[in-house]
Amino acid sequence: MKVTAFIRKTSAKNNVTDLARVYFRVRDIGGVDIKAASELSINPNHWCPERQGYKPRVALVSEEKKNAFDRDIQQITHLITREYSRGVDGNWLKGLIEEYHHPNINARGGNKAEEYLLSYQIQKYVDETSLAFESRKHHLDNLNKVLRYERFRHEVMHQRGFHLCIDSITAEDIRDFKFWLQEEHKYVDMYPVFYRNEVRRNVEQVRSENSMSGSLYRIRTVIKWCIKRGLTRNNPFDQYQIAQPMYGDPFYLTLEERDKVYYADLSGMGASYPVYRDIFMFQCLIGCRVSDLNRLTQANIVDGCVEYIPQKTKLEHAGTVRVPLNQKALDILERYKDLEEALLPRFSHFGYNKKIKEILKYVGIDRMVRVLDPKTREDVARPLYEVATTHTARKTFIGNLYKQVKDPNLIASMSGHSEGSRAFARYRKIDDEMKKELVNLLD
């Protein structure tokens, strides 16, 4: 690789007023030949191509000015040589030279260059916007994905200097980022050195289309926020359509299946499993989100009801959810009445999901349900224990209530859904089952 400085303009022999812009050129094997202008200028009659700077004896220019000019040429040449990697283009060269002339300053409005990074704006959005706990968590998780993607482009693809910037990000960049999200689980084994410090469960699982759409929706939210603040006019989502989330029919435990788990003898599984069974059953009986469940304390029990403000929707409507406790729920709480603060033993979300699957399998909750394959988005049959999660408890509460009383507002008052939530639309299949039962009465 070779870096040279040159000018394109000539002047009459005695002309000492004309100025020519200094360009830098990078040539490498494989036909690489890129050029970009700098902000340095010199009279063509004073330029020495061999020295790539001032001629040795130029009487009309001070030594201080000549030395500063030659030093700039050398420093830019060294900077390009140090930062160059295969795959860079003219935009990279232009940006690198611009950064040399204006350290930390971006030409667009005098803002620091870092303020145009998508990662910077995601963090700023989280810091300056009132977000519910879960929403904030998802945006920070998205920030980690963006930073890891940029580092992947730097270190694995050797595209040094690559960043996603709010005023230059394109629909093609969004497509490439989405492809990386889709394929990252494969890269964990392909590039073990790159992933050696990552938590494996965060990077090795196949991401569903819904999960990737959620990441892109959050990026779009931040970019629209930047546009609203006048920081950019660029919106790559004008040319990119995010795939709509798809959901299968809601599956949940019937009351018979729930009771089978509630009364099962788990002594053969180990000491922790009855505890996790109690936590899961209690969630099935009050229908809260797992993030709210893990925050409940003795103070949330008021007059035989559990009261709490859902974290996810508290910024939309800070209404208190109040759910009466039936005898099964009260019996569970009685077993943990000696806990100092927490209503139930604390748990990790990941460990809780794992225990739910193991308990349901042990008890024999193996009814086949239809779920969406995370990659193909086709519905496939799976045993219920294999696809059950903490959210299954919430759906068990809602689904069984909805089957008895089809009043979304009444159920929402106990589940913490927003008024008019579209989530209840996914439970309408239950209506068909109820209609069939009614029609059969006419036989």
List keywords for this structure.
443 residues, mainly alpha, hpI Integrase, Chain A, three-stranded antiparallel β-sheet, 16 helices, 10 strands, 45% helix
Written description of the protein model:
This protein has helices spanning 63-83, 90-101, 118-128, 133-155, 171-190, 200-203, 209-228, 255-262, 272-286, 290-293, 327-335, 349-363, 384-387, 390-404, 408-415, 429-440, and strands spanning 2-7, 20-28, 32-42, 47-48, 53-54, 301-302, 305-308, 321-324, 368-372, 379-383. The chain has 443 residues and is mainly alpha-helical. The chain has three domains: 2-109, no CATH class; 116-238, no CATH class; 255-441, Intergrase catalytic core (hpI Integrase, Chain A, Orthogonal Bundle). A hairpin with a 6-residue loop joins β9 (368-372) and β10 (379-383). α9 runs antiparallel to α11, α9 crosses α12 and α9 (272-286) packs parallel to α14. The protein starts with a strand and ends with a helix. The mean pLDDT is 85.
